[in-house]
Design goal:
With about 450 residues, the protein is α+β, with helices and mostly antiparallel strands. About 45% of the residues lie in helices and about 15% in strands. It is built from 18 helices and 17 strands. The strands form five sheets. Strands 1, 2, 3, 4, 5, 6, 7, 14 and 15 form a nine-stranded antiparallel β-sheet that branches. Strand 4 and strand 5 form a beta hairpin. The protein is globular and about 65 Å long. The two termini are about 35 Å apart.
């Protein structure tokens, strides 16, 4: 969709539905896009990075743009993102977490090359500055007051609104990191099938990737505290979306949901206008208090779609959002799991059969208990650990059937190895770190910053 098309004024909700529907692609054209976030810190004192200064986020962005093929994106004259010709971008989360949003790629071999290239570039710029990066689901050492906010106007609007609707929203913004994969669908029915299946099984991914057992320098009682944080961020825009299970689910039903998600902002003439708590329905009718008489463009709708945070999110593709950030191997394992399950119809059908008979109450309880119990969580008479083993095998079959080979003749199934180890041992990344904390690390999270750095 061209820029001119997205800047066109929207006259009816039907155009919003059509925007989502325009994401449908024939199966031969399906791609995957992987995103991951990471915490930067100074090596001598393990402090989180400020934006300014010789050892700050701005210096990292500037160094990457000067050395490599990245173009800066400016806001108020300050670099706040980088773009390249592949469609990839490097962006900043509110607390300075550095995010790679990868290009649309054909296979996970390419994804892993992309991730490794990115991490190598980041190291080449950060090491001379005495900076390193850590893959975790939650900042393990520093408190909310220690995190410096990045100079992006939309984040100021979100920060102020978060205080009105939950207690952990600012922690979500500044102290969490995730890895996610974005996947295609061929039709409305294909989208619904993938949405239902991945939404129901997202807690299994949360357990396999659980990697945030510390906050403020000590154990917090959770295996995925990042996942728990989402439960007290903003109930209007998070959660398991029960309507996805209803017969009415489709592009129109998701549009109705998004029309009722309170707005954050509208971007006009290079500035973010605070519309927090106001209604996109009113905007569509020309009755938005912040912009009386104006109607939205498709770009406004595109922006609004990014302000809902369910466990699976629909744009013109589906986003898998349940996993904690982690080391580079698990950055490639996340797309391997979901591509294997969702891009192979027999594996997709079998995965749905696992969760088909779960009640809504079971689904909600599973979502609530997994952050604390991980693979030991029970649902419908089974442990999440047992379900994880079955899903990994279904993903392995799906990846083998895809038969995407690298130069050595290997298919994509090897990328599941880190998850296979977690499932077979029953020990999550979080539990391994807790054992080290209580043993070799002698009650300190500081060794993590050297032993677990990228």
């Amino acid at each position: 969709m061209t820029t001119s098309a997205t800047n066109r004024q929207v006259e009816s909700s039907h155009e919003l539905v059509e925007y989502l529907e325009s994401g449908c692609r024939p199966e031969p054209d399906w791609k995957l896009g992987t995103e991951h976030e990471k915490f930067g810190y100074t090596l001598d004192d393990l402090r989180p990075l400020p934006y300014e200064g010789e050892r700050g986020i701005r210096a990292i962005l500037t160094g990457l743009a000067e050395r490599y093929d990245w173009r800066p994106v400016l806001e108020a004259g300050l670099p706040i993102a980088l773009l390249d010709d592949s469609g990839a971008s490097i962006t900043l989360e509110p607390g300075g977490q550095l995010e790679l949003s990868g290009a649309l790629l054909d296979n996970i071999h390419q994804t892993c090359t992309e991730v490794n290239t990115h991490l190598r570039q980041v190291r080449s710029v950060s090491e001379p500055l005495g900076i390193a990066f850590l893959g975790m689901g939650f900042q393990p050492k520093w408190g909310r007051a220690d995190m410096q906010w990045m100079p992006k106007a939309r984040y100021r609007i979100m920060r102020d609104y978060m205080q009105k609707v939950g207690t952990l929203g600012q922690d979500m913004m500044t102290r969490t990191c995730t890895v996610q994969v974005n996947l295609d669908f061929s039709s409305e029915s294909d989208m619904v099938h993938k949405f239902r299946t991945s939404l129901a099984l997202q807690p299994v991914a949360t357990a396999l990737f659980a990697n945030s057992p510390f906050s403020d320098g000590r154990p917090n009682g959770y295996l995925s505290y990042r996942s728990h944080v989402w439960e007290d961020t903003d109930p209007d825009r998070t959660g398991m979306l029960p309507f996805v299970l209803e017969d009415s689910m489709g592009f129109e039903r998701y549009t109705d949901y998004m029309l009722d998600v309170p707005m954050y902002f509208v971007y006009r003439d290079g500035k973010y206008i605070d519309t927090s708590g106001q209604s996109f329905r009113d905007f569509l009718a020309g009755r938005l208090p912040a912009l009386p008489g104006q109607r939205p463009t498709l770009k406004d709708w595109e922006d609004h779609l990014t302000t809902a945070f369910p466990e699976v999110r629909l744009k013109r593709y589906l986003e898998m959002r349940g996993a904690d950030g982690g080391p580079w191997g698990r950055l490639c394992a996340l797309p391997a799991l979901w591509v294997g399950l969702l891009y192979h119809r027999p594996s997709l059908d079998a995965a749905w059969d696992i969760a088909r008979d779960w009640s809504l109450e079971e689904r909600i309880r599973l979502r609530q208990e997994v952050p604390r119990l991980g693979l030991r969580t029970e649902v419908h008479g089974r442990t999440v650990g047992d379900i994880a083993k079955e899903l990994i095998e279904l993903a392995r079959v799906g990846l083998a059937e895809r038969d995407r080979l690298n130069a050595a003749g290997d298919n994509e199934t090897g990328f599941l190895s880190p998850l296979q180890e977690v499932a077979e041992t029953g020990i999550t990344p979080a539990e391994r770190k807790l054992a080290l904390f209580n043993g070799a690390w002698m009650g300190s999270v500081d060794p993590m910053f050297s032993e677990c750095a990228y």
